Structure formats: structure tokens, C-alpha cells
From TrEMBL:
<feature type="region of interest" description="Disordered">
    <location>
        <begin position="1"/>
        <end position="111"/>
    </location>
</feature>
<feature type="compositionally biased region" description="Polar residues">
    <location>
        <begin position="49"/>
        <end position="63"/>
    </location>
</feature>
<dbReference type="InterPro" id="IPR000649">
    <property type="entry name" value="IF-2B-related"/>
</dbReference>
<dbReference type="InterPro" id="IPR037171">
    <property type="entry name" value="NagB/RpiA_transferase-like"/>
</dbReference>
<keyword id="KW-0396">Initiation factor</keyword>
<dbReference type="InterPro" id="IPR042529">
    <property type="entry name" value="IF_2B-like_C"/>
</dbReference>
<comment type="similarity">
    <text>Belongs to the eIF-2B alpha/beta/delta subunits family.</text>
</comment>
<feature type="compositionally biased region" description="Basic and acidic residues">
    <location>
        <begin position="1"/>
        <end position="32"/>
    </location>
</feature>
<feature type="compositionally biased region" description="Basic and acidic residues">
    <location>
        <begin position="64"/>
        <end position="87"/>
    </location>
</feature>
<keyword id="KW-0648">Protein biosynthesis</keyword>
<dbReference type="GO" id="GO:0005829">
    <property type="term" value="C:cytosol"/>
</dbReference>
<comment type="subunit">
    <text>Component of the translation initiation factor 2B (eIF2B) complex which is a heterodecamer of two sets of five different subunits: alpha, beta, gamma, delta and epsilon. Subunits alpha, beta and delta comprise a regulatory subcomplex and subunits epsilon and gamma comprise a catalytic subcomplex. Within the complex, the hexameric regulatory complex resides at the center, with the two heterodimeric catalytic subcomplexes bound on opposite sides.</text>
</comment>
<keyword id="KW-0963">Cytoplasm</keyword>
<dbReference type="Pfam" id="PF01008">
    <property type="entry name" value="IF-2B"/>
</dbReference>
<protein>
    <recommendedName>
        <fullName>Translation initiation factor eIF2B subunit delta</fullName>
    </recommendedName>
</protein>
<dbReference type="GO" id="GO:0003743">
    <property type="term" value="F:translation initiation factor activity"/>
</dbReference>
Length: 498
């Protein structure tokens, strides 16, 4: 058995070797067979393929030549011309697209018309608007200041404002006409007083309004208010507080449902107006008085500038209700001399007061403990817009390390950015400068200043105070820095949206 197994294993080993040898032989035969046809027919196959390709090209060329009658070179030239034309058209479309996008970006940065008075196109547009709305037009000033040629410089008198104004045929409500004349004559002045008076006038306009047939109140009422607003602009430029009031009223007018009746809509608007006055003016003033009176201590010497109804409430509360004994120094300047009225009010309530002109600010500042100032508006970049001369008072206080506290309601906050008093300002009547010094022999020579060809009088109304000169701003939200304007505006906008 052992010998049989050995023989079988040896036989099996031989068969494997034989199988391997047979496989190698078959592979060699296949390789030889493959190499023999390529060697023998290589040139023939290549020639056959080349001949077939050439024949196909010749047939296509002949077909094209038969169809178009053009050679191969002509067809290539035409294809190149088409490709170049397509590339040129594509490049032109790209450049036109860029040019069409550029003006849209520029249109978004439109400059307000109120600071483009020196452009004829803007003047024509305003004249066309006033003519269509039957708003009186004022003639340009006889003597303009070139540095402020971009601002409106007009001859603004009561006679010119009412010359071509027919009350019965005008689109302007009589209450608005009365209010505009009070603005122009200075009877109503101050940001709060002007804003409240505007809301009261709009209440009367809304009460007398009736919606025409086939029109909606939410659209037609806003259109009917535009002549009234433009008339007020002619009487005196719109203040920041008035601009906020106008935007507030327009927003509520557009939000009136179309299915509501005139009675319901008028009632809703009256309630919103009364709510605005109560919350943003009355309650805000009381809150500021409580916050500002905490900053006053007995024995303080407080310096104020000009007249401010809010500052008067603060001083009266601290002196009468809180029983704090202090002294007030009132600085003033021409031509309005508003400090005299402020002084009379303080003396009437038996508050010790001293009256001085702004030229004596550096002389009296060493004995001052705190400076309280009012504000026309608080700008988005932290600067304070107030009556002209406020920046000088704050600068002197800063030099003597005296804290400057500005009292301002949040309804005077605006998103406008301004760094100086030249880009935008209100130009007062230059004759007021002459009237303020009338009777003094040293200045009688400028009484007839219009006859002097090289003399121009400039009467600026507002001044821009840098935020670095202000210690804090006292609002109904508390004492906040000047840089908090964007945050306050964002929060108020979110509340209105909700």
C-alpha cells in the first residue's frame, strides 16, 4: 500500500508538470499566432483605414461644396468670424450689466433736497411740486452767503407766505396755515412745543377730512397731508422732532384697515396722537425731571444756556419739591435772547439766578459745578444738535473739568449723521441780527446792510456739539452715553413693528 501511494503521488506530480508545460506551450502558440497577422497585415490595415478616412472627408467636403459652393478654408473663416462675434456680444452684455447695476447703487444714496438748493434741477422739481399743491413760493434771498449756498436762503416774511394763499380754494387746512405763521413769527419755538403743536393741528385736519368716493382713507389722507407739510417747510424748516412726528403719523395712517369706516379710523388716529403726546413728551419729561434732579445737590452752582422748557421743569422740581438750595447762572446770546425769558421764570419762582452773555462763559465757569443743556436732536454718531453757541459752552466746561449733562427725550433721536454745522443747518432771518443791536451807535452803520454790496449777514440757528464734550445724556430711559442712539432707535423700531 505504501509503495502504491508513492507511485500515485509520483504520477500525480508528473501530471502537474506536464500540465504546466502544456499550458506554457499553448500560450507560446497563441502569442505566435497573434504576432504573425500584425506583422503581415500592419501596413495593409493602416492604409485601409487612412483611405477610408480620406474618402469620408472627401465625400463630406464634396457634399458641403455642393451645398454651399464654398471651400474648406472659407468655411473655417466663417466659423472663426461667428465665434469672434459671439465673444464680442458676450463681453458687451457683461459690460452693460455692470453699467446697469451701478446707477441703482447710486440711486440708493440720494442726497436730500434740503441740502441741494444750489442745483437747478432740484429747484425746478420743488417749484413744480409747490405749484401743483398750491403752496406759496418764496423769492430767493437778495444777498446769499456762498458758504451755505446749498441750503435754502429765502426772503421769509408773513406777507409773502400769505400773499397768494386763498383759504377757501387752498389744499392747506386753516389750522395748518395758522400754525405755519406761528412758526415763522417765532410764537411757537422749541422742539417739544413745535412737535406738540403739529400733532394738535393734524388732529383738526383729520377731524375735518372726509374720504372721497372710490378711494381709501389710508392712501388719500396721506396725500392730502403733503401740501400742509410743504407749507410748514416754507414757513420754517422741519425740526427733527417734527420729522419723527410726521413719520409716526404716516405709519399709523398706512396701517389703517381698508374695511374700517371714517369714524373708526379718525378715532384710532386721535387716540394714537394723544398717546404719543402723553408718553413721549409728558411722561418722558416727568421721568427726566426725576432723574436729573438727583444730579443736583444743595449748594451747587448750575449753568444753563438759552431757554429750555425741560430744564425749567427740572430746576423747579429740585428747588421746590426736593427743597434743594442752589444758584443758577443763565448764559444767553443774540439775536433771540431766549435766556431773558428763562431768567424771568426762575425769578418768578424765587430761584437765585444770574444773567450773563455767552462771552463771559470762561470768566464764570470756575465757580460752576454742573452744566445743564437742552438739545434740539441727538444724532446717530453721538453728536448733539442744539442752539448755536452750545458747543462753545460745552468746550469751556470741558476745559475746566465741569460735567456737561444734556437733557433730551428719545423722540428727538434721529438716525442722521452730522459732524459739523455747515452741511445742514437752519438759516435765520439776517435782519434779526440788526434788530438785536438796534439803538447802539457803534453798529448803526450796518442798519442798511443790504445797500453794502460786499456785506452779507449770517444767522445760524443750530450748532453741532461733539459727543466727547458731553458727560451723559439724561433721557426717560435713564442716563445714557451719546453713542447709545442707534441702540435706542433699534429698540423703538422693534417695538413699533411688534
Amino acid at each position: 500500500m505504501e509503495t502504491g501511494k508513492k507511485v500515485q503521488s509520483e504520477g500525480s506530480e508528473k501530471t502537474k508538470q506536464e500540465i504546466m508545460a502544456e499550458r506554457k506551450a499553448k500560450k507560446a502558440e497563441k502569442a505566435a499566432k497573434k504576432s504573425q497577422p500584425i506583422k503581415t497585415t500592419e501596413h495593409g490595415a493602416v492604409t485601409i483605414l487612412s483611405e477610408s478616412i480620406q474618402s469620408a472627408k472627401e465625400t463630406t467636403n464634396t457634399v458641403k461644396a455642393d451645398e454651399t459652393g464654398k471651400s474648406k478654408a472659407d468655411l473655417k473663416a466663417e466659423r472663426r468670424q461667428k465665434q469672434e462675434a459671439q465673444r464680442a456680444a458676450k463681453a458687451a452684455s457683461v459690460t452693460e450689466g455692470k453699467q446697469s447695476v451701478a446707477p441703482k447703487v447710486q440711486q440708493g444714496k440720494r442726497i436730500p433736497d434740503q441740502i441741494q438748493a444750489d442745483r437747478p434741477s432740484v429747484e425746478k422739481r420743488l417749484v413744480k411740486r409747490y405749484v401743483s399743491q398750491k403752496v406759496p413760493q418764496l423769492p430767493p434771498a437778495e444777498r446769499k452767503v456762498q458758504l451755505f449756498s446749498h441750503l435754502q436762503q429765502q426772503e421769509r416774511t408773513l406777507e409773502l407766505l400769505t400773499k397768494d394763499l386763498a383759504v377757501n380754494q387752498s389744499k392747506i387746512h386753516p389750522a395748518v396755515i395758522k400754525l405755519g405763521l406761528q412758526y415763522a413769527s417765532g410764537i411757537i419755538c422749541g422742539s417739544n412745543a413745535r412737535a406738540v403743536a403739529l400733532l394738535e393741528a393734524f388732529k383738526r385736519v383729520i377731524s375735518d377730512y372726509s374720504t372721497p368716493e372710490q378711494k381709501e382713507l389710508s392712501r388719500d389722507l396721506e396725500v392730502s397731508l403733503k401740501p400742509c407739510i410743504n407749507f410748514l417747510k416754507q414757513c420754517r424748516p422741519i425740526s427733527v422732532s417734527m420729522g419723527n412726528v410726521i413719520r409716526f403719523l404716516k405709519r399709523h395712517i398706512t396701517n389703517i384697515p381698508s374695511e374700517s369706516t371714517d369714524v373708526q379710523a379718525k378715532k384710532c388716529l386721535h387716540e394714537e396722537i394723544e398717546k404719543y403726546i402723553h408718553e413721549n413728551v409728558e411722561l418722558a419729561g416727568k421721568t427726566i425731571c426725576e432723574e436729573a434732579s438727583k444730579k443736583i445737590s444743595s449748594g451747587d452752582v448750575i449753568l444753563t444756556y438759552g431757554y429750555s422748557s425741560l430744564l425749567l421743569q427740572i430746576l423747579l422740581k429740585a428747588f421746590n419739591e426736593d427743597n434743594k438750595k442752589f444758584r443758577v447762572i443763565v448764559l444767553d446770546s443774540s439775536p433771540r435772547s431766549e435766556g431773558l425769558q428763562f431768567l424771568r421764570r426762575l425769578v418768578a419762582f424765587k430761584i437765585p439766578s444770574v444773567y450773563m452773555l455767552i462771552s463771559g462763559a470762561s470768566y464764570v465757569m470756575p465757580e460752576v459745578n454742573k452744566v445743564f443743556l437742552g438739545a434740539h436732536a441727538l444724532l446717530a454718531n453721538g453728536n448733539v444738535m442744539s442752539r448755536v453757541g452750545s458747543s462753545q459752552v460745552a468746550l469751556v466746561a470741558k476745559a475746566h473739568n465741569v460735567p456737561v449733562l444734556v437733557c433730551c427725550e428719545t423722540h428727538k433721536f434721529c438716525d442722521r449723521v452730522q459732524t459739523d454745522s455747515f452741511v445742514f443747518n437752519e438759516l435765520g432771518n439776517p435782519d434779526d441780527l440788526v434788530a438785536a443791536v438796534k439803538g447802539k451807535p457803534s453798529v448803526h452803520s450796518i442798519a442798511n446792510w443790504r445797500e453794502l454790496p460786499k456785506l452779507s449777514l449770517l444767522n445760524l440757528t443750530y450748532d453741532v456739539m461733539p459727543g466727547d464734550l458731553v458727560t451723559a445724556v439724561i433721557t426717560e430711559l435713564g442716563s445714557v452715553p451719546c453713542t447709545s442712539v442707534p441702540v435706542v432707535l433699534r429698540v423703538k423700531h422693534a417695538e413699533t413693528v411688534i
